[in-house]
Design brief:
633 residues; alpha/beta; binds 5'-O-[(S)-ethoxy(hydroxy)phosphoryl]adenosine
């Protein structure tokens, strides 16, 4: 069993040990897993190239650790509880034994279709059990999964399929999300028609059974391909540093990049963090409401909990369906012990019914978590009082797609929970705050750029197909540090409070969106000359998207043009990237070197028009008045 810290003394002792002797610390934790061969070296640390390796020489298969090793003691325990979109539909449960059998069948089906170790498989799936089965099936045979959130458009899906040259796409026919049913297979067809030549097969799970277009040359039904297979499949033995998965995420510039995680380190860190952050005990029911299309779904619905032998829940639907009590109803129904969600959901539910949680029996909750964006004080207190009932501590967990697992978090019942503070690093994690010149800020009561100065096992290794991009994005800003892109404060007692992104990434409802991506999409509209996108505070979403758009001609019908712009963004990225506000402008503020001065645009979008700072370096300072008074659509 992995290390599970139980009190503050143990936390301090483990933290101290992890800094003094990181190799010893991690070797001890890693030795609790099943390895086919033990590693030769715990960590190789080079933040310049970068070249990071953990447990090199070690051999393993992560699914053996998620499944096979639990069979003897927990074979009949529930591994996954699935809760349907419709509240009156029965839940489905899979025991560890059943899950292993399903994973093996799917793994055999993939092999029969010619999928081999190292092949990339794209997923475009709703939250159904088969997504978990198929991801684990990939890991079983050494294929690399690349899950794309099923809210992205065909264009965005095609970009990701092409970047990773995926051999297969796994999808469903439809995706039920609250009252809507989305034709996901159609989106996959559309994406493939955009020139995804690498795709040989599309494996389709019949979820709703509604009619879909069928291309017999490449389409395969899951029930015809998987269900007939043997439920025995030998795991592929992987090197610790072999790729486990790719997950695309947005950055400041260019198209989303494929963050690469590897088998050994990711396995060790996700179980370790899961057990400590949620203080999971055997028999508990754990529920993370994320979508498997994001890193939270990978690490804390699937891998972390299954590695720990937990009972993990998957929810197909959305928080408000059929009403704002759905989450609490599900918690009551399954006697959920640990509940993990995003501030945007908390704010939306709080707005929909302040007293709603009081109608439900939430006495089973022991820990409640928050992830993805800063949680504001009001939402924190509501969550604490109405959901945690002042009894279940909040864990405000900070981490990123790139970090693979939670790095900074309170430990429930062990470290105190201060509203809006992610608090302390987990043992093994060495955060620092830097000033803009890269000087470490020592002591407490400081604010700076959040960096990490020593590797941890689940950190990204590269960005798929473009290592230089990984170097420039994360390791070039400050020599010998991993730069997170976030700003943070450290209070008088050393707790961290995450302020938010300091780069051109915005966090909309907990979804990371690059402003450059949205601008590229808007600029596809034939009537647009250029655009600039910034974030602004939004009551429910945390941040909203504010677009300044310069058109070729005078905009005579702004409402019509707005609709067209939203359609273009939906087509190129997906509905999650639609601007909340659009302002048509005659000019964008530019520096003499022709760069857009975003600082001014951010201030205006935030409504702080009185504090624009120095505008004397602008090429066109006269545009500022127009920007301040311009109308919004
Ligand atoms: C933000 C999500 C404040 C942060 C797991 C980070 C947070 C980005 C928190 C990563 C938190 C995540 N408090 N901000 N507890 N957790 N963030 O890659 O800006 O989707 O850089 O990973 O979300 O988003 P990502």
């Amino acid at each position: 069993m992995t290390l599970q810290i139980k009190n503050i003394e143990q936390y301090h002792e483990a933290y101290h040990r992890s800094v003094e002797n990181p190799e010893g610390f991690w070797a001890e934790i890693a030795s609790t897993f099943v390895w086919d061969r033990k590693w030769d070296k715990v960590v190789h640390h080079d933040f310049i190239t970068p070249d990071i390796r953990w447990f090199e020489g070690g051999k393993l298969n992560i699914t053996v650790n998620c499944l096979d090793r639990h069979i003897e003691t927990k074979g009949d325990q529930i591994a996954i509880i699935w809760e349907a979109n419709e509240a009156n539909e029965p839940s489905k449960k899979l025991t560890y034994k059943q899950l292993l059998a399903e994973v093996n069948k799917c793994a055999n089906a993939l092999k029969a279709q010619g999928v081999k170790k190292g092949d990339r498989i794209c997923f475009y799936m709703p939250m159904i059990q088969e997504v978990a089965i198929a991801m684990l099936a990939c890991a079983r045979i050494g294929a690399i999964h690349s899950v794309v959130f099923a809210g992205f458009s065909a264009n965005a899906l095609a970009d990701r399929i092409k970047d990773a040259e995926c051999k297969m796409v796994i999808c469903s026919d439809y995706n039920r999300r609250g009252p809507k049913s989305i034709a996901v297979k159609d989106v996959v067809d559309e994406a493939i028609a955009l020139g995804c030549d690498s795709v040989e097969k599309v494996l389709v799970y019949k979820s709703t059974g509604d009619k879909v277009k069928w291309n017999a040359a490449i389409d395969l039904w899951w029930h015809e391909t998987v269900d007939t297979m043997s439920d025995q499949c030998e795991p592929e033995i992987m090197d610790a540093e072999d790729m486990l998965f790719i997950l695309y995420t947005s950055g400041s510039t260019g198209k989303p990049k494929g963050v690469v995680h590897t088998c050994g380190g990711y396995m060790v860190y996700t179980e370790y963090s899961f057990k400590n952050v949620f203080q999971y005990q055997d028999g508990d029911v754990y529920w993370c409401t994320a979508d498997v299309g994001w890193i939270t779904g990978h690490s804390y619905i699937l891998y972390g909990p299954l590695l720990a032998g937990a009972t993990t829940m998957m929810f197909e639907g959305v928080p408000g369906h059929p009403d704002a009590g759905r989450f609490w109803h599900v918690c009551e129904k399954h006697r959920v012990n640990q509940f993990y969600t995003a501030p945007t959901a908390i704010r939306a539910l709080m707005a929909a019914g302040w007293h709603e949680p009081e109608k439900y029996d939430l006495s089973s909750l022991k820990v409640i978590g928050s992830v993805g964006e800063p949680i504001n004080e009001e939402a924190w207190h509501w969550y604490d009082e109405k959901v945690g009932r002042g009894r279940a501590p909040i864990v405000d967990t900070w981490w990123q797609t790139e970090t693979g697992g939670i790095l900074i978090t309170p430990l429930p019942g062990i470290t105190d929970a201060k509203p809006c503070f992610a608090s302390y690093p987990l043992p093994g994690v060495q955060p620092v705050l830097l000033d803009p010149n890269g000087i470490e800020l020592v002591g407490n009561n400081v604010e700076g750029l959040l960096c990490i100065k020593y590797p941890w096992p689940s950190m990204l290794r590269t960005t798929y197909g473009d290592h230089e991009r990984c170097r420039t994005t994360y390791f070039a800003a400050f020599k010998n540090y991993y730069f997170t892109g976030d700003g943070a404060k450290r209070d008088e007692e050393g707790r961290y409070r995450i302020i938010g992104r300091v780069d051109d990434v915005i966090n909309v409802s907990g979804h990371r969106i690059g402003t450059a991506e949205v601008e590229d999409a808007i600029n596809q509209h034939s009537g647009v000359v250029e655009s600039a996108v910034v974030g602004y505070p939004h009551d429910i979403k945390g941040q909203g998207i504010y677009a300044y758009v310069k058109a070729h001609h005078e905009v005579v019908d702004p409402e019509h043009m707005r609709k067209e712009i939203l359609a273009v963004v939906t087509k190129h990225i997906g509905p999650i990237a639609k601007p909340d506000k659009i302002q048509f402008v005659l000019q964008l503020p530019k520096t003499r070197s022709g760069k857009i001065m975003r600082r001014i645009l951010r201030k205006i979008a935030e409504g702080e028009t009185g504090q624009l700072g120095d505008i004397s370096t602008l090429l066109n300072p006269e545009c500022v008045e127009e920007l301040k008074t311009g109308a919004l659509v």
